[in-house]
Write a structure and sequence with these properties.
- The protein is built from eight helices and twelve strands.
- The protein folds into two domains: 6-122, Rossmann fold, CATH 3.40.50.2300; 138-241, Winged helix-like DNA-binding domain superfamily/Winged helix DNA-binding domain (Arc Repressor Mutant, subunit A), CATH 1.10.10.
- Strands 2-1-3-4-5 form a five-stranded parallel sheet, sandwiched between helices.
- The chain is an alpha/beta fold.
């Protein structure tokens, strides 16, 4: 899986989203945009960004309310607030809702990058391969090869398929714990660093997507099985190579 930090940029101004995402991509990061907090929530169902750049002044749910809600849901993803307001009270309110830092518009892209890197260092999410034992290695399981550094799975016939960041993190957790039953809450904590909320289907959705890419028959999964009242389990041995 790529070691680049994954940044979600949430801003209702399309040009700001594009320019920020483009600048971050040019500086070694992976970036995706969302125009409002509804799109942000939809993204977070299947992806686990390393940091969220969140604009305060947006129609509908604003950034302050969204940040407070995410923290109430016990999501620990670092958040950098962006706003056109530069008053101390706005900065303090942003930090009080659980934001990790605050940057007023207009801003220098280099300062934004520096603040993102500082937050990632503080929170332990600075650029580094995910997955302790798998970092820099390939894992072989059930006739499939997972290349951790590229985030791709290669089937026996040589067909290579790219995994999303969330799928690669989830597969990494399974590969490091073969034949171990892992609860949904445990998987969510290990992959996203948060606890599940009521009716949270994040892990079920991610497992379903991952199965489509590694299971010979998704209707009768044999690699990752569902354990009733338990969670999920990888039913095969894993061999690692450097």
């Amino acid at each position: 899986m790529p070691s680049r930090p994954y940044i979600l940029v949430v801003d209702d101004h399309a040009e700001i989203r594009r320019s920020v995402a483009s600048y971050l991509e040019k500086n070694g990061m992976k970036a995706t945009g969302a125009s409002n907090t509804k799109e942000m929530d939809e993204f977070l169902v299947s992806e686990a960004p390393d940091l969220i750049v969140l604009d305060i002044m947006m129609p509908g749910e604003d950034g302050l309310a969204a940040c407070a809600r995410l923290r109430k849901e016990q999501r620990t993803t670092p958040i950098l607030m962006l706003t056109a307001l530069g008053e101390d009270n706005d900065r303090i309110q942003g930090l009080d809702t659980g934001a990790d830092d605050y940057l007023a518009k207009p801003f220098n892209p280099r300062e934004l990058l520096a603040r993102i890197n500082a937050i990632l260092r503080r929170t332990g999410n600075e650029p580094a391969p995910h997955g302790g034992n798998l970092a820099g290695k390939r894992a072989h399981f059930a006739g499939i090869t997972f290349d951790h550094d590229t985030g791709r799975v290669i089937a026996e016939d040589g067909v290579s398929t790219a995994l999303t960041t969330a799928e690669a993190k989830l597969l990494t957790v399974f590969l490091e714990r073969p034949r171990e039953v892992i609860s949904r809450d445990g998987l969510l904590e290990l992959t996203a660093g948060r606890v599940a909320g009521p009716l949270d289907r994040t892990i079920d959705n991610q497992v379903s997507r991952l199965r489509r890419k590694i299971e010979p028959d998704v209707l009768r999964p044999r690699i990752i099985s569902t354990v009733r009242n338990g969670g999920y389990c990888m039913n095969c041995d894993v061999e690692l190579e450097s």
